Amino acid sequence: MSSSATPPVLIKADRAGFTVIPARDASFDSVMAFLAERLVQSHDFFHNAQMVLDLRNSPMRSDEISELCAMLYQKSMVRVVEVRLSDDLSFALAGEPRKSRAAAPDDRESYDSAPLIVRNTCRSGVRVVSPSDCIVLGDVNPGAEIIAEGDVIIFGKLRGVAHAGAGGDQSARIWALGFEPNQIRIADLVAVPPRGAKPALSRYEMAEIRNGNIQVVSL
Amino acid sequence: MAGKTIVVTSGKGGVGKTTTVANLGTTLAKKKYSVVLIDTDIGLRNLDVVMGLENRIVYNLVDIIEGKCRKEQAMIRDRKLSNLCMIPAAQTREKNSITEEQMKELCSTLAAEFDYVIIDCPAGIEQGFKNAIAGADTAIVVTTPEVSAIRDADRVIGLLEAALVRHINLILNRLNAKMVKRGDMMSTEDIIALLSVPLLGVVPESEDVVVSTNRGVPLVHDRNSKAGAAFRSIAGRLNGESIPLDGDSRGLFGRMKRLIWN
Asked: Looking at CB atoms within 10 Å, which of A166, A195, A200, B180 has the fewest?
């Protein structure tokens, strides 16, 4: 098996745009090098294109994904619009490109981009950063971090860390179907649950800033 | 038909990975399946001690991968069961002396010959962990009812999902029923709610484990040990037998005793 025979990345074109499929056993560095070379070879061709990153066969770490997206955008303004993780784990990537496109200063106040939707439970070690709102369809376990410029909405139990209004928006809120967090943050305020308090059985709660303090109220 | 490759992992150290590997392997071998155990904890090998095979090691896992011996030469046969053998880890090498591809290849060749390939994973989530899970199609995550162990188990489950390991199961080790009743320990239900993976079984805390480890005889050989019985039913479930989860008090007498006591 020689790496020169099979390229580390397959690029497919279809109606929606391009789909980038790294090979199963290709290393991250070889994928990066191959894509960078392809962009240089044909930079006008891929300029401003939209790409789907298909990682169903070859998982990547989240920092690798963001490094790849940043490289594609820098080299040729290629926007990665979707990352396919596997059939049941797929989320739209509203991150980097949108932010750069909305660089016009008057857009900064209202992050009117689509919310980032995470369709699975966030386990320990997962860090999700959204330039807009963030919706999690699942639990946020201890050790996971959800950071959003806007609201954080969790259809599950919040047991980890949630940071709403990370850009300083004091009106941002955190919603969850159960509040047992390690810590919650809104804008520049930090709150921890009272020590030793037994969490109430699943009830819908919302955290927001009232009178300069973070307060959690049940709905 | 290719056998099953199972990795036993946990993230945190000292929760009972090696004990689990030794006992599951022994039980499956007792059921007449051919079983090979692989210790991938290079530099900190333990499985040989738990199996009582420490003094028979000549070649090890790294020797197979580097081509210094045939894999049959490194396999050490169990003292009691002829269809059970183990491949020890190298004690004087480091985790990065093997790669994920080499491990994958070894696992697939072993799976072609054996019914069960059980891999003992090192603690942590670095290269050793990546090597251990590379060739596995099933993962067993071992945890104890402690917040730190559960946190690490959660992280490991996340990594296993990202590595596309298809079947992920949980073993809850060292559960102390009295402490759960008093509310001093997390209950099985709480842990399952948090980790949300199928439970393979619960092993009660027991002094027998220490004794059997020190003697180098897996616990499942001891008919009277409750922890041994728990491992036997876990191995049964792993093998596709339907054994109810709370059936750890054996026989009619045990069940009646429980009825009277509760």
From this structure: A195
| CB pair distance less than 8 Å for B154 and A139 | no
Residues of A whose CB is below 8 A from B147: 142
Write out the CATH class of domain A115-219: mainly beta
| 3-state DSSP assignment of residue A149 | coil
Q: Domain A1-103 is in which class? A: alpha beta
Q: Rounded to whole angstroms, how far apart are CA atoms A203 and A34?
A: 50
Q: For residue range A150-180, list pLDDT tens digits in order.
A: 999 999 999 999 999 999 999 999 999 988 8
Using one digit for the tens of pLDDT, what is the confidence trace for B133-163? 999 999 999 999 999 999 999 999 999 999 9
The span from the CA of B172 to the CA of B179, in Å, is 15
Q: What strands lie across the sheet with B35-39, from one edge to the other?
A: B76-77, B84-87, B35-39, B116-120, B4-9, B138-143, B167-175, B199-204
Extents of the domains making up chain A: 1-103, 115-219
Cβ B164–A59 below 8 Å, yes or no?
A: yes
Topology match between the domains A1-103 and A115-219: no
Nearest-CA distance B162 → chain A (Å): 6
Does residue B185 sit at the A interface (CB-CB below 8 Å)? no
- Burial track B140-179 (b if 16+ CB lie within 10 A, e otherwise): bbbbbbeeebbbbbbbbbbbbbbebbeebbbbbbbbeeee
B192 touches chain A (CB under 8 A): no
Rounded to whole angstroms, the Cα distance separating B89 from B92 reads 9
ipTM rounded to 2 decimals: 0.75
The Cα diameter of chain B in Å comes to 61
Residues ≥6 apart with Cβ < 8 Å to A150:
A111, A115, A130, A132, A133, A134, A164, A165, A169, A172
What does the pLDDT look like over B189-229, one tens digit per residue? 999 999 999 999 999 999 999 999 999 999 999 989 999 99
Q: Does A3 touch chain B (CB under 8 A)?
A: no
Lateral strand order in the sheet of A152-158: A116-118, A134-136, A152-158, A174-179, A205-210, A213-218
Would you tell me which residues 8-37 of chain B have a C-beta closer than 8 angstroms to some C-beta of chain A? Answer: none
